[in-house]
Write a structure and sequence with these properties.
Layout lengths: L10 E8 L5 E8 L5 E7 L6 E3 L5 E3 L2 H11 L7 H17 L4 E3 H12 L4 H11 L5 H14 L1
Parallel strand pairs: 4-6
Antiparallel strand pairs: 1-2, 2-3, 4-5
Helix pairs in contact: 1-2, 1-4, 2-3, 3-4
Length: 151
């Protein structure tokens, strides 16, 4: 690590702490030449994820889109926003851990549905109606019947 004060590359770590979110490590370093201290952060390098949409177009993964879609599904329902944030993080981590650089919107939708199903039945059906593009009442009835059979 290059010292920001003198430019020398020799330093020693004098203190390490995990960040509050647990996703990075904060390190206090001391330059062995000028003896000044500076802070560095170590994080896991994540590779970019490409989302393949239904029409075949590609775009960068955005966890906020997952979060916004869940917020819409849970509109006027009792839910802790921390639960929705946790779900979005779980999905993002699962995709990162899969080591696949491309993921379909269908796969993301399925991952969301399996995680919101235990939280709220109405929000699950709302999300399914948009994700599965319900065209009529029969589509709703079919999904509700499938949901009830699985219970």
């Amino acid at each position: 690590m290059r010292c920001p004060f003198c430019g020398d590359q020799e330093s020693k770590v004098v203190d390490s702490r995990h960040s509050e979110d647990g996703l990075s490590i904060r390190r206090r370093r001391e330059c062995l030449v000028c003896l000044r201290r500076f802070t560095t952060y170590e994080t896991v390098e994540s590779l970019p994820i490409i989302v393949v949409k239904r029409d075949g177009t590609h775009q960068s993964f955005d966890r906020n889109k997952i979060l916004q879609s869940m917020v819409r599904a849970f509109d006027k329902r009792q839910v802790d926003t921390a639960d929705l944030d946790r779900i979005a993080t779980e999905i993002e981590q699962a995709i990162q851990n899969s080591l696949e650089r491309e993921v379909s919107t269908d796969r993301i939708g399925e991952m969301v549905m399996e995680r919101i199903k235990p939280l709220d039945e109405v929000a699950y059906i709302r999300f399914a109606s948009v994700y599965r593009r319900f065209q009529d009442v029969r589509s709703f009835i079919h999904e509700i019947n499938k949901f009830l059979e699985e219970k």
